[in-house]
Amino acid sequence: VFVPAALAASAPLALYILLRRVFPEYVARISSLWLFIFPTWLYYSSRALLPNAAMIAAYLAGAALLLVAHERQAIGAKAVAMCEAMAGGVLLGLAVAIRPIEVLWLMPVAVCLAVVYRRQLSLRLLVGSLAFAILPLGVMAAWQQQTYGQWYLTGYSSFSSLAGEAAGGGASLLALASSALFPFGIHPAAAIATFWQQTFPLYWWVF
Fold first, then answer.
1. Does pLDDT of 79 surpass 70?
2. Crossing angle of helices 3-19/25-37, nearest 10°?
3. Do 142 and 101 contact (CB within 8 A), yes or no?
């Protein structure tokens, strides 16, 4: 119950660590403070079964730890840097385990950042981080296997005909991927309408 709240509480600090490397100090402070008191953030953080805040907080904390690890290694503290990188990997893996569907847009972002900052990245730290990111993903796969009968099935797909086909080995690889990535199908018009309903009418004051 307290895990999402604890992760969400760490997010402002992680956001500050990330932003102060890109923007002026005052921008990082104001942004982190704004996140700390943002009503929507507080609402989602207080709901243990809502994954949104916990996922974003885990991503922010994992990215911040990776950044600090690279800076720490640059000054010679290699052992501490590796520990921070491994902890960051666990958090990033946890974020993916909470909402795997977000990989669709987060993976391209991560690849673009890796290309842009390739000269500053440490292969040693990245490998250590990825190795420990597998831990929460493995726990998630084991849980899915025990709960739904297959490691790649989710709560959405388990109630469709695909679950029976997968159990009998009759589902194609394309069907399995489509069910995992788009459990409700692909509906562009509904997606656009939902995006509009959940942005401007609710947060008109931001725009």
1. yes
2. 160
3. no
C-alpha 156/C-alpha 101 separation (Å) is 12
Per the rule left: phi > 0, alpha: psi between -120 and 50, beta: everything else, 185 is: left
The band of 145, judged by pLDDT with boundaries at 50, 70 and 90, is confident
- Please give the average per-residue pLDDT across 97-110, as a whole number: 85
> How much of the chain, in percent, has pLDDT values that exceed 90?
33
Residues in the chain: 207
pLDDT of residue 32: 94
8 A C-beta contact, residue 32 and residue 19: yes
- Residues 140/93, Cβ–Cβ less than 8 Å: no
Residue labelled with tokens 């953030």: 41
Whole-number Å distance between alpha carbons of 140 and 163: 18
Residue from 40, 65, 6, 26 nearest 198 by CA: 40
3 state SS of 2: coil
- The mean pLDDT of the chain is 83
